[in-house]
Amino acid sequence: MTSLAPASTPPATRRARPRRFLMVRPERFEVAYEINVWMDATVPVDTARAVAQWEALVAAYRAAGHEVHLLEPGEGLPDMVYAANGGTSVGGLFYTARFAHAERVGESALHERWQREAGARVVVAREVNEGEGDLLAVGGRVLAGHGFRTDPAAHAELAEATGVELVSLRLVDPCYYHLDIALTVLDEERGEIAYLPEAFDDASRAVLERLYPDAILVAPDEAALFALNSVSDGLRVFHPAAARGWAEQLAERGFEPVPIELDELLKGGGSVKCCTLVLRG
Ligand code: ARG
After folding, report:
1. Which Pfam families does the annotation name (predicted)?
2. Which of 3, 111, 135, 269 could be 36's S-S partner, Cβ–Cβ 3.0 to 4.6 Å?
3. CA angle 17-21-22, nearest 5°?
4. What is the pTM of this model?
């Protein structure tokens, strides 16, 4: 006889927590260069469509009671819509981004200025890191990706600045060049996640299995639809609409999937989470 519920049973009470997000309207979005395998500069981008889809995401967040702050898009920075890469709010401070590719370097100062004006305690990164693209706060620790963009030295730098435990995870598939395409934080407070096992090396997979034995494992064909590039408030999970199998998995665990059409922004290699920087503190 056992009193333990099976791992797949949803906690009796899922609860949405109000979040504050920083986002950048994609009015300057285009695919003018290729810095990830999803980008193809020969495919035309419909910027007006990107803006309309993005506005629907903002509306969905606001309808759910979340606060959305806006940062002006900088000139000549078409990828700035992917606001999650602009830094990391964690441990009571804002750790700036330092982009791996020259094309995006200019975004960092614009984020830094917004954070300073908002009163954040800012730590300027010396090491290359792409913000919440690779640095995800969950359950009192930060899961930290490396292998394509963020340098492991940045993991150490952030750990030292915050005193927060950093868990380094190595990404091995160029389709999943950022951690936030390979792994989703479903409940930041409880420490629940979902991930694509194939996106990590063996050692990192073993770490994830040990730390998160109840994690939702996502199938490769769903992950390829950017399923894991979702944003959860602890109850609702705003996810790329095409990932229907993922939505079913979420519902089985007691989450409320909220489908978002954002395919125009897939042309730059990003979706819901990439467009959403979480503000904390
Ligand atoms: N074109 C952008 C880049 O390659 C996409 C960034 C996606 N953002 C994210 N948080 N995964 O840098």
Report:
1. DDAH_eukar (PF19420)
2. 269
3. 175
4. 0.95
Cβ neighbors of 59 (< 8 A, separation 6 or more) are none
**Distance in Å, CA 273 to ligand 1 centroid:** 10
Mutate to test the pocket of ligand 1, among 23, 80, 82, 177 (most ligand atoms within 8 A of CB): 82
Q: Shortest CA distance to 214 belongs to which of 195, 236, 228?
A: 195
Name the closest-CA residue to atom 8, ligand 1: 274
CA 241 / ligand 1 centre spacing (Å): 19
- Where are the domains positioned within the chain? 15-279
The number of CA neighbours under 13 Å toward the Cβ of 166 is 22
The CATH code of the domain at 15-279 is 3.75.10.10
Contact 273, 184 (CB under 8 A): yes
- Is ipTM beyond 0.95? yes
pLDDT digit string (tens) for the chain, length 281 residues: 344 444 555 566 899 999 999 999 999 999 999 999 999 999 999 999 999 999 999 999 999 999 999 999 999 999 999 999 999 999 999 999 999 999 999 999 999 999 999 999 999 999 999 999 999 999 999 999 999 999 999 999 999 999 999 999 999 999 999 999 999 999 999 999 999 999 999 999 999 999 999 999 999 999 999 999 999 999 999 999 999 999 999 999 999 999 999 999 999 999 999 999 999 98
CA of 266 to the centre of ligand 1 (A): 10
Tell how far CA 101 is from the center of its chain.
Answer: 18
